Queue: 2 jobs
Job 1
Amino acid sequence: MVRIIEVDLGRLGLRFPRSEVGMVIAQPYVKFSNVEPFPLLPKFRDGALAGIDATLAIALNTDHGAEKTHFTVFPECTLPGLEGFDRINAAMTADSWPAGTVVIGGFEGLTPAQFTELVGRPGTTYDHDGNSLTRLHEDHWVNCCVTWAKVGAGDVRSWIQPKIEPAGVELNVPNERMFKGRSIFRFRGTYADTHAPYQFATLICFDWIGVRDERRIWEWLLRDIEQAASVNQAQLPLTWLFVAQCNPEPSHTSFMAQVQPFFSAVDFPGVLREDTCLVMANVAGNAVPGGAAQYGRSAVIFATGKFQKAESLPTFCGGGPIQRPGNPLENYRDAVFRERGACIHSFRQLNPGALPAGAAGKRFALADAAVHPFPGTNDPRAPARLVPAAVKWVNDELDDPQKSLAVKFPTWPLAGAVGIAHQRSVDVLRWLPSPALSRAILIASPGTKACADEWEKKQGNAVKHVLNTFSILDVAQYPTQFHALGPHASIFRGDIGIEVVAVSGRSHEECNEHIASQALVHRGQLLVVSRDEENTSWNPRFGRFLDQGAEKKSEVNITDPRSAVIQIGFQDFLRAYQEAANEAALRGAIDAAIS
């Protein structure tokens, strides 16, 4: 069985506000040695310590707007051993660190000697009965987490909890074996200014799905809470369950399949879970902000229907098939942080039990959810503030080197120049504000919905088309000014400005109809570079509304048939680029096409 050890934080003076709490979750990038006990690689250790300092500084700053950061979480396997423990302990002991706060952290793999030393640190509590060190042998290594609390008197206490069940990768080891814990700490207390109880606990990654003696590990926890409630013939809540992960597949069926039974009121009815906050804190899949095929997807999950479902909010979304392929958690309020690269999440988590009934209580689960950078990072996806969905999505697409003509056609004469031009466009587009980026995608891709969480390959191809178009114009020595406020950008021929739109659709006809429907207001000439699925040349017969011979106006509208509009198929641009021996030759070809 799994022992559950109750810790009464209320007696120690630790009380949380009932309405909301401040949270900070570190999402660092980690790499380990491939030899037990799987410590962090030496080159990552200094960065891990700097990451601790950065995360704790963000927790102190309380940019999320709560009175303090009540919970700070470091995922599984991220804290560098005894140095990491001492770093956090010292920070929390300082006068500047507020009382009434908790820090939860998962440690790199520890040797028996290191773990024994950790257990002996002053102020620590360890289950010597269930996890006796006499069971810890030389061929063991330990995966554990620590929960620190700065209590009402200002003292810092900590509780050390070994992982209970090893994951597959921890079983399939050549030399040593993971020490299996036998207990979980369950922390309880009452909210400030009330007698209403709160409770929380932490599981380490695989413990969320692991089984001990024919019960899931979380079932042992709920069973214990129900037994405690039955003493007074009452019900007790589980307010927070933290799952500290180093999980390459956070949306895997095995993990998501446990959400429904965990929240189900059929079993363990004495444990109130409608308002439970399930916190999935994972490591990053990239050393910097960006897309990743693995890891990331830290999330906060609720069963309650009191919260509104997040659609396209800054920083986080409501899950769905893209974030949870095959496991969308449709019946739950799934707040998934979009950023899968290294970053630090900061937010206020609202308690649904404190919200009024009806429309007045309709809120989102999280408020002021910001993404902060680790030291040395300068990226619009981690700006220490909210990150709109369009900013995250477009920047991830801009990371793709395959969108560069220099990568696709490296032997063409101007490949070097177009590679530099591509990067110039990427650097400018990265930092455009969210409305401009969103508008740029909506103009470039016919039939696109405004919700960036629904953008996929089609919109990614539109980004490639925009980058390719302006890379060629750049190499042709047309200075470009991106703005995406209507047309994508302005280019300049001497003192004369020409506004440019790049649009990618199934056909040139579809591109024509789409641009006409946008009613783009532009000054002077408008150049439309359209690309169909086969990348064919544009034929003027495709769209009679484009009048290339119209008299130039100081301000014209594309819906006006007299507008000065030029349309060129991207194939013609590409051919000019392919055949040009140098920048001057490309400039001449482009001049001829748009004059």
Job 2
Amino acid sequence: MWNNLRAHRLLVILLAAFVLLAALYSFVTPIFEAGDEIWHYPFVQHLATGHGLPIQDPAVETLWEQEGGQPPLYYALGALTTLWIDTRDLPDRLWLNPEAKIGIPLVYGNKNLIVHTNAEDFPWRNTALAVHLLRFLSILLSAGTVAFTYFLALEIKPNDKTLAAIAAALVAFNPMFLFISASVNNDNLAVMLATLALLLLARLTKVTSVITRGATLTRFAILGIVLGLAALSKVSNLGLLVVAGIVFLYLLWQKWDASPSKEGAERGRARKIVQNPRWSAFIRVLLGCLLCAALVVAIAGWWYARNWLLYGDPLAFNVWVAIAGGRPTAPTLLSLLDEFQGFRISFWGNFGGVNIIAPDWVYAVLDAVTVLAAIGLLVAVFRRTLPRLLALPAFWLALIFVSLIRWTWLTFASQGRLIFPAIGAVAILMAYGLAQFQISDFRFQIRNYELRITNLALVGFLFAFAALAPSALIAPTYALPARLTSDAAVPNPTRIVFDNQAELVGYDLPQKSVKPGEELPITIYWRARQRITEDFSVALRLFDAQGNVVAKWNAFPGRGLYPTRLWQPGEIVVDAYRVPVATEARGGVGRVEVGLFRRVPLENLTARDPQGRTVTPTIARFKIAGDIQQSRIENPVRYEFGDRIALVGYRIENAGGLVRVRLYWQALAAMSEDYTVFAHLVAADGKLIAQQDNQPQQGAYPTSFWDVGETIVDEYALSVPGDSAPAGAKIQIGVYRAEDGTRLSVQEGADNVALAVGVR
């Protein structure tokens, strides 16, 4: 055994690295946040507590939902592993986040499916212990996938341990494979058995005689057991029966077509083989095929017969789709191509509830490597340098891909991880494709492995992605929000109380401007006034200058991880959001409203000020950048008010009992104050006729939101007696602080500009 380990020492290193990385994923990812673990584990627990196999009914709500229709082998194995653990606390651990943003990776916060408490902390107990124990079982199963990929590659190209190691590394360091491997998921058993079945089939295809190397009934029996177990672990593994059938036909044709002398010439054992008639070899292989098929039916046939009797469908797809939800309309090939981006991302790494991804450039690099591998395979096909046995994993991958398309046609399932039953095939094909581009000058020898710089760069990049994802992507997503003991450091103090339950004590708006289609970051500071016994949701509403809603965002507080029932009286919760603004939002200054509401029955909590008066919970104003009434400047002038604002143009219309004034302002500097503009109509003798004082654009666009260099159009309408203003009248324009009335000076100390009105 030790000699065998030494002969494949790089595989041993890869397996050790894989187990350590997968364990890291298991520890970092909270329970029920990995893939569909929230539904897979209840199936295990149902069996472990002696309730038998679930019977699916779309009208009955269950904890396992559609996963209760999965073939039961993995769940039975999990039940045997954990039946000694008290898991009666499972309902308490399934504290669902009703505002979870599942399958939406670009949103901020509320990515958690459930709320997590210290009941999940180490040392694990009850349900948390059972889940982590099953995760470790899954890791061991997936380690088998890595090993079988290595040996399958060696079977296809004997003695090339480097290529086999690269293929195994592409499996072991795939971050998404690590993530699923560290979860309670039947894929982990199904993928391992599928890879093992390919390995056994590959060995059978290389057999040229029933008495050489091993096309024995024992080998057919082992293959039958593996295929039966594979079919009992996942429906997609039924495709292995098609692969096996083609291999069996090939073997039977080989035995029927080959003469004894040819067999002897091929194997160098002519004297022994000539004694076996051709029909004897054929019969032996035929019996092996029948034995294999009988074992598959004996092991897995009962499950599909049960489905047929219960649901009228041996695959139970009808109830599966009814529970999981099907597509409202059949997709087109074009629409499926639109979903390809999610497919490619989720093959390499889309964590959590399909909502945690790496930066785009990471996937771009992996896309480039994939394309390069595909080109390499095409080159090798034209050169006819690929081993014939490589057709076996290629055919299996094609079957899985076609079955995925068929399944995606029924329901939304465009996830790259669903081709993991063929991940060993993908890795081997990629390794062969990339081998066509190796640079021979950049290589060195370690024992029996010839390592090239290009191989090391790819494996190193994938390993870095896999190693960094837990700490850089997954852990921060589930980190609790900051809590403060005092409001001394809370910005923009605000006192809005919601039904005496919680108090909004402040907010932070790190940026005042946002473009349509972008996100506005907002941080809210809450304080629990008493122990809260309900889970309230937070409602954020953004309004534009015209009062139209341009953003609605509901969420559990604390990015979904710290609901109000967990708040401690007196503590201040720092609650951060990034609210997406509608792409059709109009430019101008809007406002932010924040509220709390209960979901059942649906009702808002009443907002009150410190005096107990009901108020609209508006906390801040923000700017929607865009076309804010900008146009060609008329009658250019240049009057600077202090060093902040310049009047750069105007237009005055005097008719119909109104004097209409259009002013063109330009921001000279960033301003933190909101100045007021006055427009006074005065007669030739200085007597005031009419006036209008307000912040620019009737208060809709305060000066604190102006960008440096921006031109703002600002209009006023002054009523006059008679049809028009008298001859010699002027418009005095000035700017002042509303708090103390201090005016900004213009040139030479003047505090206003006089513009002639003119007579119509």
